[in-house]
Amino acid sequence: MEYSHRYPAYPTQEVAVELEHHVDVHRQAYNYTRYEYENVDSDNIGSAYKHHYRLPDWKDEFPIFSEVNSKALQRTVTRFYQNLGGLAEQKENGRKVGKLKWKSPRNFQSMTYSQSGFELKNTSGRHATLWLSKIGDIPIRYHREIPSNATVKEVTLKKETTGEWYVTFGLEVEEATLPEKPDVDDLDAGDCVGIDLGIQNYIYTSDGGSVDWLDLSTEYERLRREQRNLSRKEYGSNNWEKQRGEVATVKRRIKRKVEDFQHKLTTWLVKTCDAVFVEDLNVSGMLQQRGNARNKQDAAWRRFIEMLEYKGDLYGTHVIQVNPRGTTKECAECGVETEKPLWVREHSCPSCGFEADRDANASLNVLARGLQELGLGQ
In angstroms, what CA-CA distances link 332 with 3, 9, 124, 349, 367? Predict the structure, then answer.
């Protein structure tokens, strides 16, 4: 399986200038790949593998491409074709798509070293050093160790809109080294949990627990204040650019708090349960509905589910997505469906008289569907 670890990087001013130069060269390589894809005979290109053979000619014609690592340059070409594949997939799903656009410096702020050209050193403490070919050493805050059973396949350097640098290590773990998940026949329903992703609370669990929403009211108040200040600045001026950085800093803080909250919650779930069942939600469709859109987006439910899935593999826990249709309407006791508008927060079954919180009832239905998915029944 593949996953990633992300660390703050603290390059010196001299190295930061070199990093920005390398990123810009990769941006030009990306744009030139796009140009050749649209203007060169497709028999000579048409795939990342074929396009890699054109790189020696690039270096002869444009010596600037020789200033960056060759494997990283190949990875940038591959990046274009991956984006192209993403467009094709969206088109197959019925969405209207255009062409890949030319990348401006603001829209291209990362580069990836793949397979070689990097080395992680001095990892004995809370700080470490990343060496990159043709750039040099970059100090990073090594706040969590890379697992001994993981292999670093690639390294991505990115400059955030706040001006901060981050390093992301793409890790690969052999399936044979992962902990075994409990045998399905040996699972006890008491060690399994169904999760309903709620509105008043972040999640409800089928064992009667709930986790409150993360309080971001202070951060959002500051964000509104900084955005108002930004709207008063002349677009493109030095003051506007400085204020744009303030807005980006607040947004980044909000994102970090949400991600930290989700990491801790998902780790707790997979460590304490043998199986976790969650709804397979169409989050993009939910965000297009009117009302409560910001809360749904802040919840980042799709990312929460993805975290659950890969951590389930890491810690040996079954994570199953179930059909969400009717989990709120259906009675967890007798199965009778009852229509309930969103503002009705209590479930009261007219058939059997079962009463519970609306989301707690849904979590019980998620648990039942998950157990059925594993072939264990109710």
Answer: 36, 50, 52, 9, 10
> What single-letter amino acid sits at 122?
N
For 15-28, give one letter per residue: b (16+ CB within 10 A) or e.
bbebbeebbbbbbb
Which tokens hold the place of 33? 């790949």
Q: Distance (Å, rounded) from C-alpha 153 to C-alpha 130?
A: 14
Element (H, E) at 33: helix 13-39
For residue 45, what pLDDT is reported? 76
- The whole-angstrom separation of Cα 274 and Cα 295 is 30
pLDDT, tens digit, 9 for 90 and up, residues 307-323: 999 899 989 999 999 98
Question: Residue holding tokens 């059909």?
Answer: 323
CA angle at 179 for the pair 177 and 181, rounded to the nearest 5°: 135
pLDDT band for position 242 (50/70/90)?
A: very high
| 5-9, 25-29, 42-46, 145-149: segment of lowest average pLDDT | 42-46
Asked if 196 and 370 count as a contact pair (C-beta separation under 8 A), the reply is no
| Inter-CA distances, 324 with 85, 261, 318, Å | 29, 24, 18
- Pair of tokens at residue 343: 């503002």
